[in-house]
Fold:
Amino acid sequence: MAPRNKEQEAEVLSWIFEVLGEKVPSGQYEDILKDGIVLCKLINKIAPGSVKKIQERGTNFQLMENVQRFQAAIKKYGVPEEEIFQTADLFERRNIPQVTLCLYCLGRITQKHPEYTGPGLGPKMADKNERTFTEEQLRAHEGELNLQMGFNKGASQSGHGGFGNSRHM
Structure:
């Protein structure tokens, strides 16, 4: 399990509350996110209508459903399955760094959605850089003899006696 990075956690929290247009509440990172209410509000702000029902209070099981709804919504939004944390990672504090990683991924994925105009999180995603070559350009290298293709300019291993043997001169 990766060590926790308090700076990244603070960056994630400030991004979440900047998107929500609210002040960052005081408290522990995992406690603020644990019940899933903030997460559901976040994905609804990024992609309106993603989570239909947010359980504001109730049993632990009902609050865990918020986290599960958030996970389903971000998966639909484009966050890859392998980046999404398990509910227990957050709810039972098993793997908080995975929660942070997941939220960073969500912040990056927002860049691929032109309808999202809020702040971004993490590094800018690379733009597609497609190149086209003419047939002539593609064939230009064919006259060259690549040194990786076995041409060794006359050198050979003849007389080499294998590992550990000294060279007889």
Q: What stands out?
A: The helical segments are 6-20, 29-33, 37-46, 60-77, 87-91, 96-109, 135-139. Residues 7-19+27-112 form a domain with the Actin-binding Protein, T-fimbrin; domain 1 fold (CATH 1.10.418.10). The chain has a mean pLDDT of 77.
